[in-house]
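idk why but the lab printer keeps eating my pages so im just putting this in chat instead. protein + zinc ion:
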Amino acid sequence: MNKRRCFWIAPTSEAFERLTVRGPGDRKCQIVPYYHTASVRGANRPKFDLIQTNVGDVKYPTHCNGCGYPFIKTDMHTRDFVAVFSGIKPDGVPWNGSLDEAPVGAMFDDVVRGASESESRGPDGMCLFVRTLGGWWPIDVKYPGARYERSGTAPDITVEGTVTVPNSYGSWSGSLIHGYLIDAAGAPATH
Ligand SMILES: [Zn+2]
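predcted complex ->
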């Protein structure tokens, strides 16, 4: 039985620039799922500074990440900014990055990210998400037929019962007890 300690992450005053190019829909990539795609990540920058970026300075990827297809002008070029979160991992090492990059065990309060008043909240008023091997588990978001009761002080949370968290790469089944994600017995994670 595997268990992983949870740790707290919070948004910083920084963001990074992300430049993505996606190829035409009529030519599917043989390597990456669906379209030819590539992204590059810029350095972390203060959020207030982002508006000053000169659009002419940005350097988009020139080739598909999977198969090397060379992008052309009419392929879709998008530029966005991604919030940087930070925290201290259970081994004491500082971590910072996007929510997509967060390691298993990372936990945050979606209210600080601007969750609407109508979104579900736990008993402490927070809307907790924790990263599992199956992706983000929105503990406090209520689905039809799913309602998790939790106790404890974040990140030392206990949730009643077990959960299966799916994502496009696989799924994870287990439980969250006293701030540890615990794999379900006999059901190793697939990923
Ligand atoms: Zn490709």
